[in-house]
Amino acid sequence: MxxxxxxxxxxxxxxxxxxxxxxxxxTGFKADIKKIVVKNKGKDRKVEPELISYDKWxxxxxxxxxxxxxxxxxxxxxxxxxxxxxxxxKHVVTANKKLLAxxxxxxxxxxxxxxxxxxxxxAACGSIPIIRxxxxxxxxxELEKISGIFNGTTNYILTKTINEKLSYETxxxxxQEQGFAESDPTSDVEGYDPKFKAIILALHAFxxxxxxxxxxxxxxxxxxDEDITYASEKGYKIKLTPxxxxxxxxxxxxxxxxxxxxxxxxLYNVDNEFxxxxxxxVFSGEQFLQGRGAGSLPTGAAVLSDVSxxxxxxxxxxxxxxxxxxxxxxxxxxxxxxLRYNVAxxxxxxxFEEITERYSGGKYQYVVxxxxxxxxxxxxxxxxxxxxxxxxxxxxxxxHERVQQTSGKTELVSY
Length: 415
Ligand SMILES: NC(=O)c1ccc[n+]([C@@H]2O[C@H](COP(=O)([O-])OP(=O)(O)OC[C@H]3O[C@@H](n4cnc5c(N)ncnc54)[C@H](OP(=O)(O)O)[C@@H]3O)[C@@H](O)[C@H]2O)c1
Fold this sequence. Notes:
The protein has helices at residues 14-25, 57-60, 75-87, 97-113, 130-137, 152-163, 168-177, 186-189, 192-206, 225-234, 296-311, 319-322, 344-349, 373-378, 380-385, 400-407; strands at 5-10, 31-37, 52-53, 67-70, 91-94, 118-119, 143-149, 216-217, 237-247, 251-261, 274-281, 285-292, 328-329, 333-341, 352-360, 365-372, 389-399. The chain is of the alpha/beta class. Helix 1 (14-25) packs across helix 11. Bound molecules: NADP nicotinamide-adenine-dinucleotide phosphate.
């Protein structure tokens, strides 16, 4: 028999209001929001005034509140709130991917030590139930990869620029007007947001806790018309796709890069603000989940699902983290990529191991070939400052040392 929970809610913005709405409309599940703590006084709130407070201790010190739902937009304040709540043996539900990615190990430890539950389905791909799918369904099967579209803002911009030929600026403005993109879209367009989500999924899929600074994220800020022309001529779309891939020797590689997507790929038709996740199991093969990765009600529904799970005593078991054969994270891999560049010096900065296609025209130049991810990591700032565009042409990732062993010494192409 499930218990009626008393919730202390932090944040009453897009997701907080979404939760409030779906909870009120829910017929099958009831929980009481006892207090809502927000930041700015003087805002008009569509809720009974006595529910609102500006003092976090009104929730944290209240022994009747057994669940803290953290839905604020500041990862530092969120860390203080969530860690304090866990120490006070309150269960926590959060949608905050940045908080989680930055403090995964510490938060894991706190929920273990205090024997409480920390759930965060809404933090990775909004309403797509990917974390519980990994925790419950794929808890034992080894996985080969997880990839997909984890960020609605960039997918919206890419859809509008490629399908409808809008300029990047117009597409971004539209995304902001429609509420998909924040006024400061840096975290989305530079690929931080999908990286945080990939880090969370890497824990549940492979038992890995990876620091955000170890994972490459290159977003879509340097996309130009030439890149769109290249993609269109080949019949590709461009999507920003995190890749979490298991390799030989029990290694796993994680990175976020734009990618050309062919029509046969399930992600090809995941357009606008939608997200899609592909999970590949060793035995089960590929599974594909698609849904709304953001938005008030879809994200509120994911939060409510966690609160409901809590009422049944649900906790993540982190089975893959606890097991003995946790893989090793590596960036020493070769990926196949397109690089649109300006001058020969750019290629000197980004040494390709092998080049299969090259073009040099009056307006722009590109190569397609294999490059070590480590070069992209060390030259990330160079790529962005010089407005080069790097884009995966397929999903293949190979361990660098393996390629060298099987093909002898790989030859560096000189220019
Ligand atoms: N929006 C989405 O579709 C979506 C999807 C998935 C996950 N998320 C995550 O969900 C979280 C909330 O996002 P959102 O879009 O709902 O943000 P939002 O609309 O900007 O709302 C943020 C809320 O947090 C409150 N707040 C900020 N700092 C606070 C503090 N120190 N103490 C108490 N309240 C504080 C704000 O108070 P005031 O009202 O007083 O300003 C506001 O109510 C973020 O972590 C975000 O990454 C969002």
